[in-house]
Amino acid sequence: MDFGFAPVARPGMTSWDMAELKLIKTAAEEGLAEAFAGARATLPGAAAVKSLRDNAFRIFEIKGLPHRRIEEWKYTDLRALMRDAKPLAAPPDAAAKVKAKAAGALLSAVGARRVVIVDGAFVPELSDLAALEKGLTIVSLAEALVIADKALIDRLSRKALFSDDPAFALNTAMMSDGVVIRVAEGAQIARPIHLAFITTSVKPVSVFTRSLVTVGKGASLSVIESHESADGVDNQANHAIDVSVADDGRLDHVKIACEGDRALHVASLLADIGATAHLNTFTFTSAGAVTRNQIAMRLEGAQTHVGIRGATLLKGRQHADNTLVVDHAVGHCESRELFKSVLDGESRSVFQGKIIVEPHAQKTDAKMATHALLLSEDAEADAKPELEIFADDVVCGHGATAGALDDDLLFYLRARGIPLKEAEALMVEAFVGEAVEAVENESVREALMELARRWLKARA
Fold it and tell me: 3-state DSSP call for residue 180?
């Protein structure tokens, strides 16, 4: 059986040395190497940024696309799922910008400030940048990379919880654009910011974006992130958002993935959080062929509260993976993780959650749960919650369940004249709603539930 490895011959090699193996590159890995070599000179950034890119791509070259023999990727074998590498998306032309104008309509009731990234490029003329609130700045990442001050280089090169992850390293090497959002100390930004990521190409392309969000001491911000692309096009996306919340700061974040039915989507969210701060993030996934959402948070100050929640609705042969790591680096902090999955057809959901409590992080309060609702006998839910606790005065726990709709409750609804499909829909809405209700903004909550209802209607 060929496992994709071959011996590397060297002068003077002994038979024992022949046991050394080298990973054979796949067509996708070779395509990514060619794309990086071709784009390296034109990707934005000064010399320090180019060095950062080279170092990151070296990590990817050594490790290759993540596969099932890497523990964090054991349920999502990207090496097998990604057969080739799509060409890098071209900068958006006038036609692409016209297409992008209609994106994100579902969130129009939220009244958010819209910031648009089309085919991996920030588009100021489609973005609402007028009359920014005092203390708020929004600039293009590409522009920031050209200037590349020391603070930016330090931010991009700092050691994060998954900085050696090959997918994240690839994003660092290939990032073309995105946005840099800064909220000054004490600024309270009431109006949400909507980051609309739109891929308009009717031919398969790949995009790599990186965005930075900094919330200053005592400041607050709400960010909504949406991703859209057309059905029938097997696009590839690798997005990353790097978040820093200072002491007493607050960030509410919602991500909505509504990409095309053949899209491959890998997204990374990493966050460093100060003392007495609050960070809540919610991830909603109902589209795309393969989706991987990976989240890494480090709690660096006491009395910090973190909420990580999500809802996944899948059908057909869709695959969605939510993998998260929460590092309690100091004591007296609280984290809550709750993920709900609804699975139909031959779909598959993956939840991998790890809570780390470091040796001096006493009085940590951390709870994690994942629940899957299987609407088909062919659906699959994989759950792997983990605790790594190195302190002795903590309250930590995790739980995971998977099962079908409750027959007794279904009978109760049908006995009152409610048709089967409608009864199932009511139960699914209630199941998903438990996670959605944690979203702070009422208009966003309603938009998420509307997406759930649309999914249910399409299933019927």
Answer: strand
| Dist CA 152 CA 276 (whole Å) | 25
- CA dist 289 and 270 (Å) reads 24
Structure tokens belonging to residue 432: 């998903």
Element (H, E) at 138: strand 136-140
At position 289, the amino acid (one-letter code) is A
- Residue type for 107, please? L
User: β-strands 348-357, 380-389: how paired?
Assistant: parallel
As a whole number of Å, the CA-based R_g of the chain is: 22
Dist CA 263 CA 287 (whole Å): 8
Digit-by-digit pLDDT tens for the chain (460 residues) are: 333 444 444 555 554 444 445 568 899 999 999 999 999 999 999 899 999 999 999 999 999 999 999 999 999 999 999 999 999 999 999 999 999 987 777 888 899 999 999 999 999 999 999 999 999 999 999 999 998 888 999 999 887 777 789 999 999 999 999 999 999 999 999 999 999 999 999 999 999 999 999 999 999 999 999 999 999 999 999 999 999 999 999 999 999 998 999 999 999 999 999 999 999 999 999 999 999 999 999 999 999 999 999 999 999 999 999 999 999 999 999 999 999 999 999 999 999 999 999 999 999 999 999 999 999 999 999 999 999 999 999 999 999 999 999 999 999 999 999 999 899 999 999 999 999 999 999 999 999 999 999 999 987 6
Whether 369 contacts 337, CB under 8 Å: yes
At residue 96, φ and ψ (nearest 5 deg) are -65, -40
Strand extents, DSSP E, 167-261? 179-183, 193-199, 206-215, 220-229, 236-245, 250-258
Strand partners, 320: 291, 349
Q: For the packed helices 442-459 and 420-436, what is the interaxial angle rounded to 10 degrees?
A: 150
Cβ atoms < 10 Å from Cβ of 277? 27
Residue 125: burial class (beta carbons within 10 Å; 0-12, 13-18, 19+): exposed
Q: For the chain, give every domain's residue range.
A: 27-459
| CA angle, 145 then 146 then 149, to 5° | 70
The neighbour count for residue 433, using CB atoms within 10 Å, is 15
Give, as one character, the DSSP assignment of residue 88. B
